[in-house]
Design brief:
alpha/beta, 283 residues, six-stranded mixed β-sheet, 12% strand
Length: 283
């Protein structure tokens, strides 16, 4: 099978986890290649996500690595054999690959924990709000580029609207609620959307007010995506240079702790609803 030209973030993660198991076993790639009738080059392609691995190969590798964590091995097998062609595939070749990677990651999520400081969470944005966000890009996007970005953002909502939705908790700073990315009507409609979404049993919205004391978490924006096991969680962080997918165990623990700290600074869901109601009345 020819190597993939551009592996997805999920395929890269599978390779990363296989490499971590190998390194934990103290084995070199060339040593493992000999055990499974492969080559060092093929092993490198698998561990970089450029080549796939069958269920048999994943289990054989895990056995050679003396991995006794059956739940982890089963989860890796599921990643290796998954052939899901999700809704995001219709945007392949239209939007940058990272858009598809984020949607696929959310599709497989067991939970989503998000912190947003300057924008309303993407999963809860109205069409007009999303259009205003993407419409502010420099250089300005033509309609042929703007339209699919908005459509993709709205379709990401599937993760909280499907029959078995992911548990979603978002911590939103008051700044994100007050900044008018569109006009007054867009802002008012967006606040009402947040109130409506917070009624879902599996959705929790909490606000961090401006007047919260001892809040130094303005740089805490992130999305923590739950995997089938805590070890397979992923944290997404946006920057001017793009979206970073973080999965080292030390990074995951750091952002778990950071989320809990920000959560402690936020209002409870009931007070959050009252807070958003008050903001909507001001507009």
């Amino acid at each position: 099978m020819a190597p993939r030209s551009r592996p997805t973030a999920r395929q890269v993660r599978l390779g990363t986890e296989l490499r971590r198991l190998r390194e934990a076993a103290g084995l070199k790639a060339r040593e493992v290649a000999g055990l499974i009738s492969s080559t060092s080059a093929q092993m490198s392609q698998v561990e970089a996500g450029f080549a796939g691995a069958s269920e048999e190969r994943v289990r054989r590798l895990a056995a050679h690595y003396a991995c006794a964590d059956e739940a982890l091995v089963d989860a890796l097998v599921a990643m290796a054999t998954d052939r899901t062609q999700g809704w995001w595939e219709e945007f392949r070749g239209i939007l940058p690959p990272v858009f598809l990677d984020v949607a696929e990651l959310e599709h497989h999520a067991t939970f989503l924990h998000e912190v947003v400081i300057t924008h309303v969470p993407g999963l809860l944005q109205t069409p007009d709000y999303a259009r205003a966000v993407f419409g502010y890009m420099v250089p300005e996007l033509p309609d042929s580029e703007l339209r699919p970005r908005v459509e993709h953002r709205l379709k990401r909502r599937a993760v909280i609207e499907r029959d078995a939705p992911a548990v979603y908790e978002t911590l939103v700073h008051e700044a994100a609620l007050r900044i008018r990315v569109g006009d007054r009507a867009v802002s008012r409609a967006q606040l009402h959307r947040l109130l409506d979404e917070s009624e879902r049993e599996h959705v929790t919205v909490r606000v961090i007010p401006f007047d919260t004391d001892h809040f130094a978490g303005a740089s805490a924006a992130m999305m923590h995506v739950g995997g089938p096991l805590p070890r397979l969680d992923t944290v997404l962080r946006d920057s001017p240079n793009g979206t970073a997918f973080l999965d080292a165990q030390s990074q995951l623990e750091r952002f778990r702790t950071l989320f809990r700290k920000v959560e402690q600074a936020s209002l409870d869901p009931h007070r959050t609803r009252d807070f958003i109601h008050h903001l909507a009345k001001e507009l």
